[in-house]
Amino acid sequence: MTKNFELDATTGKATKSPEDFFNKVYRMPFTLWGDVRIPDELVELVERNDPTNVLEFGCGLGRFSRYMAKQGLNTTGVDFSSVAIDKAKKRAAKSKSKANFIEGNVTDLKMIKEQFDVSFDIGCFHCLTKSEQEKYVAEVYRLLKFGGTHLIWALDSTPSHLTLNEEYIAKLFSNGFQLKEAKSSRRRLVKSHWYWLIRTEDDLETLLNDIYN
Ligand SMILES: C[S@@+](CC[C@H](N)C(=O)[O-])C[C@H]1O[C@@H](n2cnc3c(N)ncnc32)[C@H](O)[C@@H]1O
Questions:
Q1: What pLDDT does residue 4 have?
Q2: Coil, strand or helix: which one is 80?
Q3: What is the dihedral of CA 169, 209, 55, 186, to 10 degrees?
Q4: CA atoms of 54 and 70, how far apart (whole Å)
Q5: Cβ atoms 59, 88 nearer than 8 A
Q6: Which atom of ligand 1 is nearest to the CA of 19?
Q7: Which of 75, 103, 104, 123 meets the CB 3.0–4.6 Å disulfide criterion with 68?
Q8: CB burial string 47-64: b at 16+ within 10 A, e below
Q9: From the alpha carbon of 124, which atom of ligand 1 is closest?
């Protein structure tokens, strides 16, 4: 993982893991990325696809998953921060939300067996290193139904010094997905993009062979 995630946000001391970093951040009363407004892109994801179930990658405190559940969708949010998932579950219970939250790493979600009509990720993908991104792609492939849309919002410059853009995403997702649209964004005032990826019918074995061989 990146060096950026190896420092405690409050003490500046080294932490053990990326999960540790995010756990410390989520113990604080608020986070830097705590923008609770629902992006139009998320509203449109529901309107255009009419899904029955949805999976959120890197759900944090679960605000967006709770929104999806409120729209009547069977919603699962996953995040590797146990502190975030604990808070997400408590917030869901308090607001009587049916959103379901699971602690797990987006690079290995084998505990999730069902497939989803749509999935989305607001701010998690850009936390990953290149090798983690490749495992993430395989998980999105496995968990998204054929024809389903995966929506990503990601920073153009990542903490591990990768530059994300249309070309990069199209190449990374070239097996099993079509990049339908990329739109530049100033969400949270930072240079970033929305990416709409459609799951195509490519052979899973080819994808896994490309990644692991
Ligand atoms: C910038 S925050 C965004 C959280 C939430 N989507 C939001 O917008 O409020 C990134 C989130 O991704 C999670 N995350 C980062 N890497 C992850 C990984 N490999 N597996 C699961 N969650 C991860 C972090 O714990 C954090 O909650």
A1: 45
A2: coil
A3: -10
A4: 12
A5: yes
A6: 25
A7: 75
A8: eeeebebbbbbbbbbbbb
A9: 12
- The candidate with the shortest Cα–Cα distance to 181, out of 134, 135, 149, is 149
Distance 204 CA to ligand 1 centre (A): 26
The whole-number pLDDT of residue 3 equals 45
Which residue, among 12, 24, 154, has the nearest Cα to 84 in the 3D structure? 24
Token pair, residue 83, equals 């502190």
Q: What is the mean pLDDT of each run of 10 residues along the chain (213 residues)?
A: 49 73 93 88 97 98 98 98 98 97 98 98 97 98 97 95 97 96 89 97 65 72
b/e map of 130-145 (b: 16 or more CB within 10 Å)? eebbbbbbbbbbbbbe
Distance CA 26, CA 158 (A): 20
* Mean pLDDT, rounded, of the chain: 91
Q: Which residues line ligand 1 (CB under 6 A)?
A: 18, 22, 33, 58-60, 63, 79-81, 84, 105-107, 122-124, 127-128
**Atom 26 in ligand 1: residue holding the nearest Cα:** 60
Longest dimension (CA), the chain: 48
- The tokens for 175 are 């097996």
Residue 36: the pLDDT is 82
Residues 36-212, CATH architecture: 3-Layer(aba) Sandwich (3.40)
d(Cα 102, Cα 112) in Å, to the nearest integer? 9
